[in-house]
Every structure is written in C-alpha cells, then in structure tokens.
Task: structure prediction
Amino acid sequence: MMSRLRALLTGLFGLTAGLALAGPAQAQTDTLASVQDRGYLRCGINPFQQGMAVEDGGRWLGMGPDLCRAFAAATLGDPNAVTFVPVTARTRFPALQSGEIDVLVRTTTWTFTRDTALGADFIGPYYVESERILVRRDSGLTEFEDLDGQPICTIAGSLTEAVMQNQEQAAGIDIQTIPVADTVQYREAYQAGRCIGVTDGQAGLTALRALMDDPDAHAFINGRMAVSPLSIAVRHGDDHWEDIIRWTFNALATAEELGVTQTNVQRLSTQSRHPIIRRLINPEGGSGAALGLESDWAFRALQAVGNLGEIYDRAFGEGSELVIPRGPSALWRDGGMVVTAPFE
Result:
C-alpha cells in the first residue's frame, strides 16, 4: 500500500515539475527561428488610417508598414519579406496571442490592462497621439460638457471609447455612444448624420476631416481627453524576440538622433568614427551577435526605410497627404516624448 502511494506521489510530483518547466519553455517561443524558417514576417496593422497604414496600388504605406519593413530587413535581410495582416481593435490581441501575427504595429496604446492582462509586451512609443472629438462646426458644440445627450461615434474596444467613458463619468454627463467597428464605419455614420461627432486619435480625425467635402465645416472640441503612447506589441514572455524588435526600433530612433539617414548610412557605415554609429551600423560593430542577428542588421533596417524621423515625415511631414506637426511624437531632444535606450 505504502509503495503504491509513494509511486503515485512520485508520479504527481514529476508531472507537476514537468508542467512548471513547460510553462516558461512554451512562453519562450523562438519567434526569430519561426520567422526565418517561414521566410517572412507577419505584421499586424491598421488597414484604414491615412498616415498609419493604407494600401496604394498593392503597396502598403505609412508608419506601420515602414516599421514592419525595418523589422523584416533586420531579421531576414529583406524589407519586402513581410505579410501585412489587417487587424481590428477587437481582433489585434487575439491575433498576437495565437501566433497569427509576429508583431503588432496597429495604432495601439500602451495601457496598464493591456500590459498586464492581454499577454502583450510593449515597445516605443513610435507615435504619441492626442485623443480628441471632432464635430460639425455648425453644431455649436465647443466644450466636452456640451456633449450631454449627443450621439458620438467611437470604435468599439478602442482606448478612445474607454477614455470618453471616463471623461463622461467625471463630468457627470450622459453621452449617447454609437459603437462602430473601424474608421470606415465611423466615417459613414458621421456623414449619414447618425452621430453628431466622432472620437478617436487626432491623426485619425484629421484624416477624416480631410476626406469631407468641406473640411473647414468640422472642428475639434476644445482640449484633449488624453495623450496616448502608440506602441509596438509582441507576445509576453517572448524575450529574445522582444529584444530584437525593441533594439531595431531603438536603432531607428538613435540613428535620427545621430544624423544617420537612408541617404548617408552606406557612407557612415565605413567612414564614421563616432563610437555609437560604428557599434550600430559598422560591419565590425558587434551589436548583431548580441541579438542573434547578422552583423549588418541595423544597417539593413536603415537602408530600407531610413531613421524614425524619415518614417514620420513620409507619413505626416510636409509634402505628405496628411500634414501633422510631430509635436510630442518627436525625439526628447526636440521637445517630444520619444526616448531611446543608449547603445552602450
């Protein structure tokens, strides 16, 4: 009897120990190896927002696709070895958790709940958004408190929806929230008059206003509801892959700070004497080995898309279809909120 009990307890202990070891091992999925074996990166993006991600003639343009190309260049040596996977506000985290995508670059705000409860780790921000409300100018609505009883469209499951609800409760008013799936639906609802205003990030609302027949007939409610750090997300516990994505992003931001561009990266890779530039893009810099990548990983990313400032300028700078001053999305040295860890 005792021998059978010992055998049972030994078996249970072995099973428990095995499960304890299996948990971290499963979390530490080698995404880099999977991506390299597959031959392409799967990148989750927002498919409906000018400046962030739009398809034009079969090619994806915007900050999201450019960041994805940088990751593909760094890990695979080819910025075009990427499949863009459109995801919605509701499907983005399940797509990341299930492995349908390797990285999420979909206008996603880094929040407490998303960081602690949705199986994601965040990198960035790459863009700092202001949560605003756009209304028809002739509505006479100018302050948040004026929205009491008014129908306002918002993307279901978005941070903006939660922010507006918090502001609504704090102000003691009752907004008639009209939930929609995406920016296409809130544009249609707004144009059809089903809602008197739309709430979203300022970039999305600026794009919406630009599409109106008379953009000047639409104005923002005074003030901003919140500031949102739009960030890149990877699966929680995928530490090696997170390091790769984080330091590729840091390379783009550091390159901007040090004046390394898509145009001069080739020359600086062999001629610069700056120790950080050499560590970053010189073939003998040695930074690639620490990440399990080729020695020219950062050089390839910069050669493909340029630095973070160049990525922003193509999306929102002068000459783009949607000009938005960089403001808080700039590097810290320029008064913005983007800070990169040093390459030391």
